[in-house]
Structure formats: structure tokens, C-alpha cells
Amino acid sequence: MTKRSFNHYGYTKDSYIECSKMIRATNRNHILILNSWFFAVNIFYMIFAYFNLFGASQEQVLFYLISIIISFAFGLWIFLKPEEVERHNYFAVIFSIFLLLTYGILSSATQPYMQASMFPIMLIITAISYTGRMYLMMLMTIVASGVFLYTSYKFKTFSIAYRDSYNVAIVATLAIILHYTFQRIRIAQYILFQKDQQTRRELEIKSSFDALTMLMNRGCFFSVMEEMVRIAKGERMFLCLLDLDGFKGINDTLGHQMGDKVIQTVGKVILKTLELEGKNQCVSEWDLKSPTSLAGRLGGDEFIILMRGANSMKESEDKMRNLMESLSEVKFDGIDGIRTSVGITEIKEGESDLDTAYKRADEALYESKRGGKNKISIG
């Protein structure tokens, strides 16, 4: 059993790492939100300071202006370089926390006759907003609180600094507790989401692929093919049907278990020839615009291929001939080569009724059967 870690909010390191992508994305969103809020707050405070409103003085205008410039530059980076922010997530989070807590400390120092209000707010906000490492977040909270108390006793009267000490001790403790609690709940949600996603993917794969060959099943193949043909304008595509020769004899003489092994082998050879190995992930995650071929099992010993990337009928024929040669070289347990008949047709540009193309390929397939088998016919 893997040890759970306080530093990873009560989860294992592996569980934490599995959630890292979602953690980085959430942190980036929170950085953007907090930085936007920080930018807006400083604009209002600068206006108040300029007009000497609500206790703010014109002496503080420069302080707020500098804060606006820093937050604007930081926000620009977050907005324009989201991938870079996620890649350097720890730096971005630490800088955001440093910016907000430093602002809270300086705000307190510029108002020596008042108890600090901004720093405790910043402690709580950063605690519930960011997921990092528990020890690091605790250290930052403690160090920032120590610096805050130092400036408080340096610039304020003892009575006000004493009340600041009391308040920050309570708020810092609360911030640490809230941080652990909030981030533990957040990671639990990430883990649950990942489990749901994995279950959904597994169900989609089971419903989309033939369990024996890991080729697409009939329904999924035609559904994806229709979508591919619809979006791939101007691209030449070829529909190929394959039917094994003498498969009934294999079942009758060697048994259905051997027949299943033959079907499984054919599926592997098709995937290898079309360079589709490892492609049996969720169909919903595929980029249908990429020139990737499709392969499916129609049932029994019938297979179907949508050939993409071939520029001519001859090129698609050559690809199918390579497939037939690879199958003919298969040898195991009484099987000396697998023979197959093939029918090929080109899907015509603007051909919306794919049943017509399928019918042409089917007729070509049976022409191969009638013509002596183990050959290719064009429809």
C-alpha cells in the first residue's frame, strides 16, 4: 500500500501527480481571476487616493500605480501565454501569492494608525485559491506573517501592533487549516472526475471496438466514416471490403477456437499494415481531419477498411496487396497462410449516400470470389 502524504493533502504522491494537469489548469484560472481582481482594486484605490477619499491620501498614489503596472504585466503573461503559465505553474502560483501578500504587508505599513485588514484577507484568499504542496504553503504563510508582524511593530504603535499580532495568529492558523481542507476536497473531486472519465472511456471503447480484433465494430465504423467523408473535402478516399477465403473449412476442420485465432490474427495484421496499432482509444478523442485510415470488422470473417492518404486507386491497391501478402505469410497450428478476397471502390467527391459506395465495393468483392478468390477487384 502506497503511503499517504500530508504534503500531498492526505493522498499518495502518485494520485497527486495524476491530478497535476487539472491542478495546473485550475491554478492558472485562479491566478487570472485574482490578478484581475487585484488590478481592479488598485485602480479604485488609486482614484480614492488621488481625490483623498475614504482615508486614502495622495501620498499613496505611486504605491497603487506601481501595483497596477505589476499586475497588468503579470496578467498579460497569464492571458497571452496560458500554456507557458501551466508549464511554469509553481513559479506563477508563488509569484501571485508573493504579490498579494506583499501588497497586504505594504498596505498595512502605509496606514500606521489602523489595524491591518488587507493582509488577513490576502492570507485567506490565497489559502483557498491555490493548490501546491502543503509544506511550502505553510512555510509561505508563516514567513509572510512574520514579515507582516515585523513591519507592524516597526511602523505602528505597540497597541495596534499587538492587536495585529492577535488577528494574524488567528487568521494564519485558519488559513493553513482552510488550505489543507479546501485542497484536499479539490483533489478528491479531481480523482473522482478522472475515475468517471476513465469509466466513460472504457465503456466507449467497449461499445466502439470489436473485442476479438480491436477493430471498430460495424456501427462505429460507418458512423465515423460518414463524419470523415463529410469534413474531409477534396480528399481521395477508398472503401475496401475483405472476406477470408476458406474460413468455414478452418472452423470445420480445426475448430472455432482456431477460427477465432485466425480472425484475431487478421485484425492484428490489418492494424499493423495501416499503422493503426494503439489507435483503439476513445473515438471521441480522435482528430477526424487527420489523414488516418479506418479499419473495422463487419462480423464473421468480413472486414472493412476506409483507405485515406492514398492518391490513386493503384496506391490503394498496392496497400491492400501488401496486406494480402502479409496474411499469406501467416503460419501457426495447421494454418499455412491466410487468403482473402478484396473489393475496392473510390468514394466519389460529393457522394453523400455511402450505401452506394458500399454496394460497389461489395459487388467488387464478390467478383473476386467468383474470379478464383485471393484477388483484388475494383468496383
Provide a descriptive summary of the structure in words.
The chain is an alpha+beta fold and 379 residues long. It contains 13 helices and 7 strands. It has helices spanning 13-18, 20-50, 61-80, 82-87, 89-109, 118-129, 134-155, 158-208, 218-231, 247-254, 256-273, 313-328, 354-370; strands at 237-244, 294-299, 302-308, 331-332, 335-336, 340-347, 376-378. The strands form 2 sheets. A 5-stranded mixed beta sheet has the order 2-3-1-6-7, sandwiched between helices. The radius of gyration is 33 Å and the shape is elongated. 34% of the residues are buried.
Largest sheet: 5 strands, mixed
Low-confidence runs of at least 5 consecutive residues: none
How would you classify the quaternary structure?
A: single chain
Number of discrete helical segments: 13
What's the pLDDT, averaged over the residues?
89
Give the overall shape, derived from the CA principal axes. Answer: elongated
By helix and strand content, what is the structural category?
Answer: alpha+beta
Q: Please report the total strand number as a whole number.
A: 7
Estimated share of beta-strand residues: 5-15%
Helix proportion range: 55-70%
One letter per element, helices H and strands E, the order comes to HHHHHHHHHEHHEEHEEEHE
Backbone CA Rg:
33 Å
Strand order of the largest sheet: 2-3-1-6-7
For the record, give the distance between the C-alpha atoms at the N and C termini, rounded to a whole number. 60 Å
